[in-house]
Specification:
Elements (H helix, E strand, L loop, with lengths): L4 H14 L12 H8 L3 H13 L3 E4 L3 E4 L14 H7 L4 E12 L2 H7 L6 E11 L2 E10 L17 H8 L4 E9 L3 H6 L8 E10 L2 E11 L10
Antiparallel strand pairs: 1-2, 3-4, 4-5, 5-8, 6-7, 7-8
Length: about 230
């Protein structure tokens, strides 16, 4: 299924900026010009430009136009690092077990989060990650097919979904939230949790080429995992 028109416009602008077609301070094509190029309504173009301005990629000036903003220096608490690399980094042995790999239809919350239509086809995977044989993370992930068309053909026991997506869908932005919560039934079974054992849930949404690429729920056994970070 083709990406929505505003996402295609965002991706086209981002590709042009990355290629040096428009450098910092350069004026990009006007909204009427973009509407003619993509054969869409101006409100569709306006959404693409507004979102890139909100992401500080573009800067809008009333009466003057829209310009490429300066590069941003960012730092985040959570670095996208595949869990197998984390485990090897502390001397452990990683093994992944694939519980599910297939296609699903986007429900209303997923459709809103991934900017697709309700009922649109998404790729879905669920894996248990083990360290020295002990389950430490349940990874449930939903992927927009346009971001990684070959996702379902991968062997995720050999390469983790995170590592694969970092390779094929260049990371532009990450959003996340962290909460302590009771485990879902799937997490309780997959992580072999004792009654009352807490879970740490990291929910993460990634963006690539100007559009959402994936959404993941990463469930961790509270007593077997620590989330650390620094600046």
């Amino acid at each position: 299924m083709a990406a929505p028109a505003y996402q295609r416009i965002k991706a086209w602008l981002l590709d042009g900026i990355a290629a040096g077609q428009w450098r910092e301070g350069a004026r990009i094509p006007s909204e009427p010009e973009l509407a003619r190029r993509f054969k869409v309504a101006r409100m569709t173009v306006n959404r693409a430009v507004r979102e890139l301005a909100a992401e500080q990629v573009l800067s809008r000036s009333q009466g003057s136009g829209t310009f490429v903003g300066p590069p941003r220096a960012e730092s985040t608490l959570v670095t996208i690092r595949p869990i197998d690399a984390e485990i090897r980094g502390r001397g452990g042995v990683h093994r992944a077990e694939v519980l599910r790999l297939g296609a699903v239809k986007a429900d209303e919350p997923l459709a809103a989060e991934l900017s697709v239509r309700r009922g649109a086809r998404l790729f879905h995977s669920a894996l248990v990650h083990r360290e020295d044989g002990r389950p430490i993370q349940l990874e449930a992930r939903w992927v927009v097919p346009a971001a990684a068309p070959e996702y379902l053909a991968q062997d995720f026991t050999a390469e983790t979904p995170s590592a694969y997506l970092l390779r094929v869908a260049p990371l532009a932005r990450v959003e996340y939230r962290i909460e302590a919560c009771p485990p879902s039934d799937q997490a309780r079974r997959a992580l072999d949790l004792a009654a009352g054992e807490p879970c740490l849930l990291l929910h993460r949404r990634t963006f690539s080429r100007g559009a959402p690429a994936s959404s993941a729920d990463l469930w961790h056994a509270g007593g077997r995992y620590r989330l650390t970070g620094g600046f």
